[in-house]
Every structure is written in C-alpha cells, then in structure tokens.
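pinging the channel bc i need a second pair of eyes. not urgent but kinda urgent?? the chain im working w is below, pasted from the shared doc
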Amino acid sequence: MFFAACCMCIFIAEVVDSNQYSKNQFHDLHHRMKDRDLQRTFGVDSREKVPEYEVIAPFQSDESGKIVDYFLHGQTRPRRDTKELNFWYFKVNAFGTSMHLNLTEVRPNITSGAVVEMVNKNGSSTYKDIPRSVYYAGHVVSDPESLVAISGNKGLVRNR
C-alpha cells in the first residue's frame, strides 16, 4: 500500500526540554514571523498563502517506539564506531497521526549554488537555497516504502 502525505511540520526543539507546552500556543506562529522568515520557512510571500502546518514536539524513542528522552535540544549522543550505521529513532504526533521514524545520518556532498524547487498546488515553483548541514533520512517504521527527511541544523539532534 502506498501512503503519501503532504504536510508541513515545524519542529520546535527548544520547548521540548520542559515538555510543558500547548500546541495551541503555536497555532498562529506564522503571524508572528517576519516576511523573510515566511519565505524561508514556508516558501510563500504572504501570511494568507501559508499552508496548513502543525508545531510538534518530537521525542527520541527506542526501536520499539518507547520514549527514550524528550530533551532533544543541546542533548549530545556518543558517536558510534564509523563502521556501524548510525540509526536514530524518533516519534512524532502530527495531524492526528503518530509516526515512529527510523532515521540515518546523511551528510550530503552538495554542489555550491544548488537549490530546491518546490512545486506549489497552483503549479508555480518556489526555489530555496539548500542549507549546509546534517540531515537525517529514513522511513516511517510502519511503512518501509515511505521517505522521511529531517534537518538537524537547528539543534534537533547533535553529536559530540
């Protein structure tokens, strides 16, 4: 079975350490953003064009999906042997769905000047520079054919 979902999730790692936040306090986050940040985050030039999004609090889990830690920002994890694959498990609840993610660290060798093209619902395209950082790619555990990618450039996951 092929499962595809088009959604925008914003990971706010700074608030996870206390795990004491209400999803409702971020429902209007885009109204508090500068125009430049709207363009960077959502690829749009006005608040009216912001797609549906949900601010979520991911947590690190084990292979079976049980919580390991809610505190992700600034948390370090010992580096493993370079021959060993570096698997990470996270669990996120977004848009009424719980997703258990199996991710592997990816350090892409991207050519300078490369951009990402995002095709909008109306067929127009938006182009964004690719941030140079560490990414995590993998799949939803219950759907091995799925594709998940998370940027680690804002402190969601850090190595020593």
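so Confidence is low (pLDDT under 50) at residues 1-21, 73-80. and The first strand starts at residue 8 and ends at 11. — does that match what u expected or am i reading it wrong
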